[in-house]
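re: ur question from earlier - yeah i can do the single chain one, its not a big deal. heres the input i used so u can compare w yours
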Amino acid sequence: MSALRFLCQCCHQPLRLIQSTETLGCDTSQEPVASKLPSAQQEPGETPEQGSASRVQTDVGKLQDGASGRTLPGHGKMSWSSSSHFALLGKLDSGRTLSSIQKATRGIFDTLAGEDLGHPLCEDCTDNLLEQLDTQLAISESDSQNYRRSLETREGSSGDEREALQEELKGLEMEEARLVQELEQVERTRARAAVALQAAQAETEMLGQQERQHHAHFSKSQWQQLELCDELGSLENQLQYAQTQLARLEKMDAFGSAFEIRHDGPLAIINNFRLGCLPTVPVSWEEINAAWGQTALLLLALSNTVGLQFQRYQLVPCGNHSYLKSLTGDGTKLPLFCSSWPCALLYNKFDRAMAAFLDCMQQFKEEAEKGEQGLRMPCRIHVGRGLIEAAGAGGELYSIRTHSNTEELWTKALKLMLTNFKWTLAWVSLRYGQK
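and the output i got, formated as tokens:
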């Protein structure tokens, strides 16, 4: 017969039954009838004895395997290897089965355990249980002695002592009521403090969010400040460069750089264009017209510098097709250009345009001569007759018209005119350059 095992009801360790013929007086010569177990089921082809023995061994093995993985439900200080022996009382005669033996054993355990304690127990659990029971017994005996002494003291105390105790009890009750009120007050204070704490936490969160927003705004403002500082530095550099350029330009002779007047023998040259012609030095009329355009542009720039508005004519410089427009009458346009030497018998518009140009030049001279630093032109202008007088005493007169004139004399008149303009450029540079 295989050893029959139970589990400890406290630590769930497997318990092994040791059957002894000397202590139990059981007959082990007969095998128990395992077929009466509820869990025993006979396999086909096996005898009842073989089936019951195999089922008992299988159940015992399962109990051992399940118990090996369990933990202690109590304090957990027991060893896993601890197993206790216990004995079954009675005798296994031929009339008793394994089911009847288990039933009898279960009845004995129930009788020993009562309703609160589970059986069977191993030795360690039994020792622990006995220690707990001893501790409870010692506490119960101490309480019993205290109650007994209190009862004896009460019976032996006098009336005065009882009254004093009653007064002390009333004082303690009043103190308890006062403490209860204080506790209620503290609870109310704690509740108010909790509400205030919650409000403070909400305010702290709001302030934290505002702080984060302020930090973000501050960072953005700093970034804008850096950008503005860079832009300001760039503008300061541009201003410094502009001031440097202005100082350089102020020192520069703008008219002298824009208009270059020089002489090449009997011919006057303005910006590399020859104004006039000679039989020995032929000059194309395209070049002469361009020179007249540069001269008209120079006179208009000079008049704008001194703030002069011409009275009778409007000067319109257009390169080699410049002209003057009459401000009186029908607004006739007088061209300062020509394609060939005009006919000597005709009083043409080209001559009228050159005479009108002298009129504008005389207006500028009269305006420029005003003031302490007035302009002094070396060659006098006779507007009504269209003549220019050479410098020096007894100066000769030269006509600016082509009518009844020669190329040499006409070229000489143009040279004297550009000489006046050269002096004018020096005067403008000196006077307005200082300002």
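Helices lie at 48-68, 98-113, 123-156, 159-251, 254-258, 285-306, 349-368, 407-434. not sure if urs matches, ping me
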